[in-house]
Design a protein that fits this description.
With about 140 residues, the protein is an alpha/beta fold. Helix content is about 35%, strand content about 20%. It has a 5-stranded parallel sheet with strand order 2-1-3-4-5.
């Protein structure tokens, strides 16, 4: 993710993490690497396990407060990704953010189905996969 940010010469981003090991440790590691690459973190938000709709609206408002940090690095599960995209549309911010989604989003359709306007321009990553020679699926 840091390599992608550097490729586009972005230097000021925000982050969102889902509560728990995946989200919090992912963002923690990202922040370490971002610091080494001179990437500044404008805002950091965390989605609690029992987050309500109003929490997602608050996060979008928080992210919007830094107009120069429209790139948002996300380590969130696909359901919370969907809820964030919906909240951005509801807050009139569809297409405002450039989401940089972790492998929990990847190529999945569920987070963006019906949210295409909010997700437009997103970049998502997947670990490189290669089939093993001689292996087959059952």
């Amino acid at each position: 993710m840091v390599d992608i940010i550097k490729l586009f010469n972005w230097t000021y981003v925000s982050t969102i993490a889902s509560e728990g090991d995946y989200g919090e440790k992912g963002i923690e590691h990202f922040k370490i690497l971002a610091n080494k690459a001179d990437i500044c973190i404008a805002e950091s938000a965390k989605i609690l396990r029992n987050a309500k709709h109003s929490d997602f609206l608050r996060i979008i408002e928080q992210l919007s407060s830094k107009a120069n940090a429209r790139v948002v690095v996300m380590f969130v599960d696909e359901d919370n990704c969907r809820r964030l995209l919906s909240a951005s549309r509801e807050m009139g911010k569809a297409g405002y953010f450039l989401w940089l989604g972790s492998d929990s989003w990847g190529r999945k359709i569920h987070p963006v189905k019906g949210q295409e306007e909010s997700a437009g321009g997103a970049i998502t990553i997947l670990p490189k996969r290669k089939p093993l020679i001689g292996m087959y699926s059952i």
